[in-house]
Amino acid sequence: MPAARLLSLILGVFLASSPALAQQRGSxxxxxxxxxxxxxxxxxxxxxNAGTGFTREAVTAETGAYSIPNLEPGTYxxxxxxMGYQPLK
Length: 89
What we know:
With about 90 residues, this protein is α+β, with helices and mostly antiparallel strands. The protein contains one helix and five strands, in the order αβββββ.
């Protein structure tokens, strides 16, 4: 029976530590504003991972805010665009 307890203990420690072994994730968030500092709701924000080419996009809320969660670590290019405005990188 001691071997079974030892195995249970080892399994318990391994399962408890497995979240710590998981890779970290990140997010990109911000606000899109016009030159006068007013929020631009409905602007499209596209992020591109410079290393992999992976892209995701979001549309800004009424406050001009956006958030793109759950991203792999890396360097990202961010572009915001909206009809009537030049795209901003």
